[in-house]
Write a structure and sequence with these properties.
Order of helices and strands: HHHHHHHHHHH
CATH class of the largest domain: Mainly Alpha
Strand content: under 5%
CATH architecture of the largest domain: Alpha Horseshoe
Largest sheet: none
Distance between the termini: 51 Å
Number of strands: 0
Shape: elongated
CATH topology of the largest domain: Serine Threonine Protein Phosphatase 5, Tetratricopeptide repeat
Helix content: over 70%
Radius of gyration: 28 Å
């Protein structure tokens, strides 16, 4: 790694930037871009972990689990994994569940019994669904904004909106009324210019275009 870049990360870490702190710890914990230094990795992950940062808690837990830079201590590893798991981190849940399943660590006295491995799987599914929901929400916003313009992209945006609403997903409810609305607007949009284009084409060219369109639908629908 470029020394200037490393120095920049360190300055931000020393200034209290928790992301830079975990980045710096990760650099020292590996040997790919900088000489490995587990003591420095432990120092920076601990600083981040004690601020409640999930990456810091997970990294510190890994050091204790593997005995890198610290004395191997499965209970201490589980303690940090548990802190990250309680913030819905699926990797921490998986690692905590593995420690418990192997009998290497025990849940704190009085703690509610939890199948952390199962919970990790459920959290990954929830995270994936949330990612899809955010992606579709962003697409909806972008297409709606594009559809409101007079630019050449407007008809395509209208068609995409219609398709989104027509198909539906668990994270994007189907809405036939909205789908029909947008598809109708798209087909009647003055920016589509099909009539204008048709006026510049011969009957044979129009017939060929329609034939190709039918063939495409037959092959793809």
């Amino acid at each position: 790694m470029n020394e200037d870049h490393l120095a920049s990360i360190r300055r931000r870490a020393e200034a209290g930037d928790v992301v830079a702190q975990t980045d710096l710890a990760g650099i020292y914990a590996t040997h790919f871009s900088h000489p490995q230094d587990y003591a420095e990795a432990e120092r920076w992950w601990r600083i981040a972990a004690e601020q409640g940062n999930v990456r810091g808690q997970l990294g510190l837990g890994l050091l204790y689990e593997q005995g890198n830079g610290v004395e191997q201590d499965y209970d201490e590893a589980a303690r940090w994994f548990r802190k990250a798991a309680m913030q819905d981190d699926p990797s921490a849940m998986q690692m905590l569940g593995a420690l418990y399943a192997k009998g290497l660590a025990s849940p704190p006295e009085g703690a509610e019994l939890t199948d952390w491995t199962q919970k990790a799987q459920e959290q990954r599914i929830a995270d994936r669904e949330r990612w899809h929901a955010e992606r579709y929400a962003s697409a909806l916003s972008n297409y709606t904004r594009s559809a409101a313009t007079d630019g050449p992209q407007a008809p395509m945006a209208m068609m995409e909106l219609g398709t989104l609403y027509a198909d539906g997903r668990p994270w994007f409810p189907e809405d036939s009324v909205q789908a029909y609305k947008w598809l109708t607007i798209a087909m009647t949009s003055p920016t589509l210019k099909l009539d204008e284009l048709g006026e510049q084409m011969t009957p044979d060219e129009i017939a060929e275009a329609e034939r190709l369109a039918r063939e495409w639908w037959d092959e793809n629908r």
